[in-house]
Amino acid sequence: MAKIIPTFDPQINRFFTSYISRGLTSGFSAQYKTKPGYLLHDTLGGQVIFNSGGVERGFSNGDLVLIDPLVHHDYRVVSPQHPWKVVCVHFFARPTWHSLLDWPELAPGFRHINLDSSTNHHRVTRKLIACHQLAQGPWQHGQALAEAELEAALTWCAELGPHRQKPIDTRLEQAIHYVYQHLAEPINQQQIAKHVGWSPTHLRARFQEVFNCTPLQYLDRLRMERAVELLQMTDEPVYQIATEVGYDDPAYFSRRFRQIQGYSPRQCRHKTR
Questions:
Q1: Which of 118, 131, 117, 40 lies closest to 86, judged by CA?
Q2: In what side-by-side order are the strands of the sheet with 55-59?
Q3: The overall pTM is greater than 0.90
Q4: How far, in Å, CA of 271 to CA of 273, rounded?
Q5: Cα dist. 161→42, 63, 124 in Å?
Q6: Helix (H, G, I), strand (E, B) or coil at 126
Q7: How far apart are CA 152 and CA 139, in angstroms?
Q8: Beta strands in 14-163 (DSSP E)
Q9: What number does CATH give the domain 16-160?
Q10: What pLDDT, on a 0 to 100 scale, did the predictor assign at position 161?
């Protein structure tokens, strides 16, 4: 089943951050209860142990770990003989990156692929390092250039990884874009179908096949993921966020938010603060 992903918005500060470590040694550890956005770790050398959802796994050169937004996880370096060398990127995803992030799961939101060929791994690593350098550099359009390198790295992962999947067809991609662009508007299934040139029945069937939900359920979930981003990365009041994601009634928005996310908007705001 493909997943519904939180999306990039240029109004949110810091599209992503990144760092390169050339040797985290034994005893180093980090723990994240929740973190907005995705975390991608590309291990270049050494050994590290990740834990998430009760699953603990060790990783080394050629392993890439992807942590979904708001997923509790921790990691630690255990071998003094093998310092952990890693490139890490923290980012929000664009709607078109849907299939690129559908990696195999070790636990819910804890994803991993291994690029066993050094040549294949080098292709991805080179893009991630370029992403880091551009994001941290002085260039006026550094963030946009870094984003392009990140997308290229994710595309190589999709192309070379063992989880290769058939890409989503063009009209379904158009439907995803249309939904995202109209989050604040009262759109319906007929409007989405008309935009992409499908019948409502066919549109519903394609969403069920790829996303295991209806178009309107997809819209609802996407609105909530957008609300999570705004709650955690801005100080906008809840009623304003409700309006921005298509809910005229803040009380109804709060009820739907709790139903889908499992906690209230106020609790969400304090999860990473």
A1: 40
A2: 29-32, 73-76, 48-52, 55-59
A3: no
A4: 6
A5: 13, 11, 11
A6: helix
A7: 19
A8: 16-24, 29-32, 38-45, 48-52, 55-59, 63-67, 73-76, 84-91, 105-107, 110-114
A9: 2.60.120.280
A10: 78
Burial of residue 120, with CB atoms counted within 10 A of its CB: 0-12 exposed, 13-18 middle, 19 or more buried: middle
Q: Do domains 16-160 and 170-269 have the same CATH topology?
A: no
Q: 247-255 long-range contacts, Cβ below 8 Å, gap at least 24?
A: 247/223, 253/227
CA distance 206 to 157: 25
The class that CATH gives domain 170-269 is mainly alpha
Domain positions in the chain:
16-160, 170-269
Residues 20 and 87 sit within 8 Å (Cβ to Cβ):
yes
Please write the tens of the pLDDT for every residue from 204-249: 999 988 777 899 988 988 888 788 878 877 889 999 999 999 999 9
Answer for the pair 87, 125: CB distance below 8 angstroms, yes or no: yes
DSSP for 161-196, please give it: STT--PPPPHHHHHHHHHHHHTTTS---HHHHHHHH
Q: Which residues contact 143 (CB under 8 A, 6 or more apart)?
A: 15, 134, 135
| Core vs surface per residue 58-84: b (16+ CB within 10 A) or e | ebebbbbbbbbbbbebebbbeeeebbb
Give tens-digit pLDDT for 95-126: 778 778 889 899 988 999 998 777 889 999 99
Contact indicator for 18, 90 with CB cutoff of 8 Å? yes
